[in-house]
Structures are given as structure tokens and as C-alpha cells.
Amino acid sequence: MKLLRLISVLIVFVLTVSIGCTYSPAYQGTLCDKDQKCPDGYECINDGTENRCVKSSSSDGGEEPQPADADGGDLDADRGDPGSDPGSDPGSDPGQDGDAADAQDASDDGIDCSQPDIDQDSHDSIECGGDDCDDGDQDVYPGAPEMCDGVDNDCDDYTDAMDSDLRLAACSEQRGVCQGAAHRADQCVEGGWQACGPDQFIAHNSQYEQTEILCDNQDNDCDGVVDGMSRDCSIEHLGVCAIGTETCEQGAWAGCPASADEECQPPGADEDCDGSVDEGCGCSGEPPRDCPLQQGVCAGAQEECIEEEWSGCDYPTHSGGTYELPPESTCDGLDNDCDGTSDGMMRPCSDVHQGLCAVGFETCVGADIWEGCPL
Q1: How high is the pLDDT of residue 51?
Q2: CA angle in degrees (0–180, nearest 5) for 262-264-267
Q3: Has this prediction a pTM greater than 0.85?
């Protein structure tokens, strides 16, 4: 009888608890989440070894605490409204642009974007949603001139000679005919310009000479001096005009004696500088006499006494048309100007060659044989 009464009491107690009490999950003693937080109504308390959830003494037994997800958040909050996109942030603007998003990401990564254009080149840094690949250099931004400095100045991922937009710098030598000469792109090496060479100067101006020879009122060798070279008068003159030296000034040679009318006294002088002596002077039955020029194609040339006057020397006729007034210009293996030297004339390599082969001068050393230009 007592046993039946005890069973009845237990049944009544269970029904009373089931009807009058609210079910509460057993969070007591569970580990706190990674942020050291617990569900509502519980506190995170260290028990001496670990942080565990303990029912709060101030809990009034109100709203049922909700289970936390793996990140310590509220599962119902994560679920959102039944009609919402589970992957969307209810508070976010779906139309937010990429730059703002990048800036927000940068802020989330600890990057200060309160001043996105530190170098003040009107381009925000890439980290803050802009297009400046180096916001610490005012000379680096999209559209900047690409320089030979080992830096991608225009932010196109190409540097120096690899960038078709490389700005070619002027050669260091800018005097005379070299003015305006510029480097080639392939001369930008390891962030610096290699020196310009003669081939670049002659490509820039065909009048360039490594050693100035042309008397043209130009600074052909780019040394800051226009003309000014000297030479023996005998190179281009005969008779008394071949005495001394002459200098190139303002594009013209000057300094040799000037020619004059031929004089008969004293005899034996070529005053008119034509290679004949005393032509037109009187004679009386004298035999032919040697002309002053007796070398090269002039060897054996004579003038005659005709009608009591010396005929003068006819070098062209005597040489069969090969005689030339100095300086000779035909590269034929002959001493055409009768100065004792065959050929030897020079010409710019650029007259007949191109590129590197056009640098400098070449010399005639035989019948149509020129030597001296780069091969």
C-alpha cells in the first residue's frame, strides 16, 4: 500500500514538472566559445583549468537561450528571415562598387585608407581601391612617362626597355652636329643608359666625323669647335700658291698665297699657279723644256717655244686626260695631280655604307680599293 502511494506521488510530480516548467538545454559546465562567450543567461567562468559556461546568478528564467553556432553566433540570426539570401548581409548594400569594397577590405586588413593618395599624384593606391602601383612615389602612376630607372613608372607591368612607351633620353654629347641625338631603347640596361656611339651620331646626322676633316662651318666631331683645322697649301695648290699652310675658317680654306699674272722675270716661277712656268714669255728658237710637274701622270711633260712664246704645259693632253688639279679625286691607282703620291684621298664611310659601317673615313689605297671603314 505504501508502495502504491509512493508511485502515485512520483507520477503527480513528473506531470507537474512537465506541465509547469520550461525545458532548458543543459549549458551548465560546457566550454565557452572562441570569443569567451556563452548563451544568454550564462557567464563564462574559469574553473581553474578551463573557461566554462555557468548559469548567471542574475538570470530570471526568461527567454530560452539559443544554441550558438561554430563561430559563437546566434544560429537563428545566421538563418535570417525565411525569404532572405542565406549568404547575404541584411545590412549591406548589394550595389556597393568595387573600389569601396576594396577600401573596406583594406580597412579590415589593418591598412589605413583615410589618405588613399599619400604621394598626391591624383591616383589612389591599389590597396585602397585605386590604380597607383606605388603610392609612395609621386612619379609612378598609370600614364606616367616610362623612364630608364628600373621602375615600372606607368604601372603597366613592363619596365625600362621592355616597355614600348620608354622615353628615350638624349645622348650626353649634344654639341655640334650631335645636337638632338638620342639613345636607343636597347641601351637602357639595369636602370641606366649606356653611352651613345659614333653609329648613333652618324645616323642622327650624316655630317658627323670622329676626326673632323670637312671644311663646312660645322662642328662635325662634336668637340665644341667649328672647323679650325689646318693643312699644307700644296694639297690643293700649285706654283707659288702651294707655299705654306692654310686654315679652314667659316667653311672656307684661307691662308695660301694668291695667284697672280705670270711674270717673265725672274724666270722659272709659276706666279699664276697653273703648273706652267713663264708661259707667254718670249723665247727665240729654244728647244722644248721640261714642265715643273714631273711626277705621276705628268712625268715627261714639256712645253715648246712657239712663235717666240712658251706654249705652257698641257698636262691633260700629255696624260691622256688623267691629270687632275690637286687634290686628286679619282681612286684609280694613279698619281693624277702629280704630287708624288698615288691616290690617298679620303671620303666619309657614310658615302657608301650604312649603320656601324658608316662610321669614320676610308682611304683609297689602289685602283678602286678603299680601306678604313668598319666591317
Answers
A1: 86
A2: 110
A3: no
